[in-house]
């Protein structure tokens, strides 16, 4: 990985000695490699790539992604404003709780399509499109009831998930849309969740969608754009792989349908690290607890999902391991980055990196305990 290469190691240590820690650091050549994997596999087919902005909304990163021909998938009015500012052209808008203001913003900007997540939301979109006399393109987010074998909190398309609608409701939305002069049926959508490592769930969901589209055809509704969402996984400490497996799911249908993908994590995860400094060590019976200056307010994934992001001490070469935990300074018992790992005991002021933080790192951070948001730096 890029952060283990000698010159990058030096750069990170220098940055950490000269600037306030913690901070996020992104390696742009790695980001470009991840982008290229999608372009190489899907680029010459009828596929639109809409980057899921929620994973990382840093403006410089967004511009790089946009310059590579991606559109954007957003989940709030604020994300929508940002991607418009950054020059994205094709924009989809998902999310279960769009407010009137957010709906109006999307309608006025005539975005690629709004992904509808409930019948009542559909009624608001219909009402405002008719009131403003602007034709709005819509897509319905289906909940196809498919498990992905991932953490419960990032599984989004099981029977009682809050996202999307069932096929019956979708049918009602599409047939009502057909009758409105201010609504245009653009696509159909599903998003199964995150950290998916098998193409099987996509295959199962897609089959259900195709059957549904055949039913709609009988009612004179022809949809030829299928948005399969994001979710392709990346193991912490690794780069993404296996895009061809995802392509193979779409391949039999490419003759008849255009596809949309909304990758987030697999584009940005491997290019980012969180750089932090060791504040204190304390011995607790038979092990140590190492306190660093980054906390769960900077990176919540370990506390929220119990995920381990590989941690590397860049400033020490010691390899005599002890049993230890690595914790942040936040006043919560869940503020841990590692528990019971064997790791060389760091010195105070050592520089550690927490790897694979390019996705859902900074973008999920908060200023809990009134701790400030961090800086973000880029290596080109
Ligand atoms: C609607 C939608 N599309 C795409 C994504 C991106 O998922 P991932 O970052 O796992 O690729 C998400 C993430 O939760 C999402 O909610």
What does this structure look like?
The mean pLDDT is 96. The strands form two sheets. Strands 1, 10, 11, 12, 13, 14, 15 and 16 form an eight-stranded mixed beta sheet that branches. An eight-stranded parallel barrel has the order 2-3-4-5-6-7-8-9, surrounded by four helices. By secondary structure, the chain is α/β, with parallel strands linked by helices. The protein has helices spanning 6-18, 28-42, 59-67, 77-85, 100-108, 119-132, 167-178, 200-218, 243-250, 265-268, 301-305, and strands at 23-27, 47-52, 71-74, 91-93, 113-116, 136-141, 183-189, 225-227, 258-261, 272-284, 287-292, 311-313, 321-327, 336-344, 351-354, 375-379. It is elongated, with a radius of gyration of 22 Å. The protein binds pyridoxal-5'-phosphate. Pyridoxal-5'-phosphate binds next to α10. Pyridoxal-5'-phosphate binds at residues 52, 54-55, 73, 94, 191, 194, 229-232, 262-266, 359.
Average pLDDT over all residues:
96
Q: Helical segment tally?
A: 11
Beta percentage is 15-25%
Please tell me how large the radius of gyration is.
Answer: 22 Å
Distance between the termini: 15 Å
What coarse outline follows from CA principal-axis ratios? elongated
**Main sheet, how many strands, which sense, barrel?**
8 strands, mixed
Stretches where pLDDT is under 50 for at least 5 consecutive residues are none
């Amino acid at each position: 990985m890029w952060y283990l290469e000698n010159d990058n190691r030096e750069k990170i240590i220098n940055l950490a000695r000269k600037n306030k820690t913690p901070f996020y650091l992104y390696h742009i050549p790695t980001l470009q490699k991840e982008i290229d994997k999608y372009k190489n596999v899907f680029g010459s087919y009828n596929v639109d790539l809409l980057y899921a902005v929620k994973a990382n909304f840093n403006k410089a990163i967004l511009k790089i992604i946009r310059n590579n021909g991606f559109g954007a998938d957003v989940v709030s009015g604020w994300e929508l404003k940002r991607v418009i500012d950054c020059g994205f052209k094709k924009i989809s808008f998902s999310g279960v709780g769009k407010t009137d203001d957010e709906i109006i913003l999307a309608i006025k900007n005539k975005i690629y399509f709004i992904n509808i997540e409930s019948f009542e939301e559909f009624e608001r979109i219909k009402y405002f499109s008719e009131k403003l006399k602007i034709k709005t393109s819509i897509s319905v987010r289906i909940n196809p009831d498919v498990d992905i074998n991932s953490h419960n909190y990032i599984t989004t398309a099981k029977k009682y998930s809050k996202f999307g609608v069932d096929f019956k409701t979708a049918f009602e939305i599409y047939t009502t849309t057909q009758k409105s002069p201010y609504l245009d049926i653009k696509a159909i959508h599903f998003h199964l969740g995150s950290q998916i490592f098998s193409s099987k769930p996509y295959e199962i969901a897609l089959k259900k969608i195709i059957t549904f589209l055949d039913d709609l055809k009988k009612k004179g509704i022809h949809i030829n754009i299928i948005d399969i969402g994001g979710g392709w996984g990346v193991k912490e400490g690794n780069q993404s792989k296996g895009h061809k497996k995802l392509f193979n799911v779409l391949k039999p249908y490419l003759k008849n349908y255009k596809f949309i993908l909304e990758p987030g994590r697999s584009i940005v995860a491997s290019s980012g690290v969180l750089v932090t400094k060791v504040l204190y060590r304390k011995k607790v019976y038979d092990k140590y607890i190492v306190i660093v200056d980054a906390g769960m307010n900077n990176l919540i994934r370990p506390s929220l999902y119990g995920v381990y992001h590989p941690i590397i001490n860049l400033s020490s070469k010691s390899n005599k391991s002890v049993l230890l935990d690595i914790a942040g300074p936040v006043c919560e018992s869940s503020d841990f980055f590692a528990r019971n790992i064997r790791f060389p005991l760091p010195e105070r002021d050592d520089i550690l990196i927490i790897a694979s933080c390019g996705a859902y790192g900074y973008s999920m951070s908060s200023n809990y305990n009134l701790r400030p948001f961090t800086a973000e730096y880029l290596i080109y």
